[in-house]
Amino acid sequence: MKWFNLAAEHGDAEAQYNLGYMFSNGLGIEKNYSEAAKWLRLAAMQNNAIAQSMLGCMYEQGLGVSKDYSEAAKWFRLSADQGNADAQNGIGEMLVNGFGIQTDFIEAAKWFQLSADQKNPKAEYNLAVMYDQGTGVNQNKTIAKEWYKKACDHGIVEGCIELSKLNEQGF
Hints:
This protein is an all-alpha fold and 171 residues long. It folds into two domains: 86 residues, Tetratricopeptide repeat domain (Serine Threonine Protein Phosphatase 5, Tetratricopeptide repeat); 68 residues, Serine Threonine Protein Phosphatase 5, Tetratricopeptide repeat (Alpha Horseshoe). Helix 2 runs antiparallel to helix 3, helix 3 crosses helix 4 and helix 6 packs antiparallel against helix 7. The longest helix has 13 residues.
């Protein structure tokens, strides 16, 4: 902890991220979301994609910071642009729900696809729903079934349920 703290105070983005992670999860120290947000913000401002994604989650949920969907979307977008699968899914969800940014189903589908291609289970499920419902993409039950199966295989129970429904419908 001492070395992380020293490196973080000297501007090391990886150490700042690690401290933020430790504070957010109570690893070796007492859980403190405000301290987590402080260190994650410092790392995020140095383009640490994982810190940006975590900071987006903190703003989305109001952990250690005031809940602010616009700020969450900003950090998710910065991280997603660097290829972070969690952030790509996060920005996709915000686009679907219109949280902090204007609703855009087509753009959301693009982000879900990028994330799902990296085997992000939540994005696999979200993309399946879009194909199942024809939201942001042309409706295609066969493709929906493929993505539900992947999500199910990765532990998303809802994906298993929807896969079963499509099977019962003959898809």
